[in-house]
Design goal:
Strand 9 and strand 10 (138-141) form a beta hairpin. The protein has helices at residues 2-21, 39-46, 53-60, 262-266, and strands at residues 28-32, 73-77, 83-85, 88-94, 97-100, 106-108, 114-115, 120-123, 128-132, 138-141, 146-155, 161-175, 185-189, 194-197, 201-207, 210-217, 219-223, 230-233, 236-240, 250-251, 284-291, 298-303, 325-331. The chain folds into 3 domains: 31-72, LysM domain (Membrane-bound Lytic Murein Transglycosylase D, Chain A); 84-251, Jelly Rolls (Sandwich); 262-331, no CATH class. The protein is mainly beta and 334 residues long.
Length: 334
């Protein structure tokens, strides 16, 4: 029975990943009619200039284009939607970070900077920066990392965005808004794996041919070449290594309780601040203290003893850590 159940989950997860990552030319987007909408208004707001509103009328078999009942649904083929290049905004940056545009121009990363498809971001070991995408999703790029904004696309005024990133090396944390619509995607590729989500919080790390994925909320489909993929639920992670037969979920350790102090509430975390309660099987801790407005801050890290495996657990955000700052603690698994 467990073997059959495992096969069912694997098949479901693989089908889900293929659905998220596949092309969407043959699918429709359902638009709910609002009071006062007309076909030409909807066409002007969402369709390509080359698609006349009459085609939308024929596709939905509408007899009277002047009367659209509010609350009814219009089916719009995704191929007809007006696709536009999207931009990512730098919300905050700490330390030294550089960007290289698709045209090959280098520039220091500054808060408020707008980045397009093809841009490459690099951070120094003690730097971090946060990005916001067209659909409101956010990403935290930590130190000593390199990230390629592979594809940033938005579909007219539908609210759907296709965000595809490639983490060449380093570590990122993602807070992806719940994706609605068949064209909405958020995919993170690494040299050894691919992670696709529909709305969740997760982390990805790429180091020395390995990929670490950790899910804090929701589900993430993880796939790799010549390996059996899996769907990670919240509280689970996985290590993807070239040559392994399958990607196996691993339960993450619980986050330790944060030690609250006046100093930690007013400033960034320091190496003298440790967790109040420790996880018995952990080999080290990492804390990230950030302001709520920037979601980008300093990092504190301590390792108790060296081990070959470096999987880190989900973060907790205790309210006791202060109102203006948020401290997240993670424990390393043995």
């Amino acid at each position: 029975m467990p073997a059959i159940r495992g096969k069912v989950w694997w098949r479901w997860g693989l089908a889900w990943l293929l659905t998220v990552s596949s092309t969407v030319q043959a699918q429709d987007w359902a638009y709910r009619v609002r009071p006062g909408d007309t076909l030409w208004d909807v066409a002007g707001a969402h369709l390509k200039p080359s698609i006349p509103w009459q085609r939308l009328q024929d596709h939905n078999r509408i007899a009277n284009p002047y009367q659209l009942p509010p609350g009814s649904t219009l089916q719009i083929p995704l191929a007809w939607l007006d696709r536009q290049p999207a931009r990512a905004k730098v919300v905050a940056v700490r330390g030294n970070a550089t960007s290289r545009s698709a045209a090959g121009r280098d520039a220091p990363v500054t808060a408020g900077m707008s980045l397009g498809s093809g841009a490459v971001l690099k951070t120094s070991p003690d730097a971090s920066l946060s990005l916001e995408f067209a659909d409101g999703s956010r990403l935290l790029l930590l130190g000593d990392s390199e990230l390629l904004l592979d594809r940033l696309t938005r579909f007219g005024r539908s609210g759907m965005a296709d965000t595809r990133l490639r983490l060449q090396r380093g570590r990122i944390g993602n807070e992806v808004r719940r994706l609605r619509g068949p064209a909405a995607n958020f995919v993170v590729d690494t040299p050894s794996a691919s992670s696709a989500v529909r709305g969740t919080q997760f982390r990805v790390e790429a180091r020395e041919g390995r990929t670490h994925a950790e899910v804090l909320e929701g589900r993430v489909a993880v796939n790799a070449r010549n390996q059996r993929g899996t769907v990670l639920r919240h509280g689970f992670g996985a290590v993807v290594v070239p040559g392994q037969a399958a990607i196996a979920p691993v339960a993450l350790l619980p986050a330790p309780t944060c030690r609250a102090s006046r100093r930690s509430r007013r400033a960034s975390a320091r190496s003298s601040h440790g967790p109040r309660s420790r996880v018995r099987t952990a080999i080290g801790y990492r804390s990230v203290t950030t302001t709520a407005s920037t979601a980008c801050g300093s990092t504190w890290r301590s390792r108790r003893r060296a081990r070959s495996c470096r999987r880190w657990t989900r973060a907790a955000t205790p309210s006791a850590c202060g109102r203006s700052t948020r401290t997240a603690w993670k424990a390393a698994m043995p």
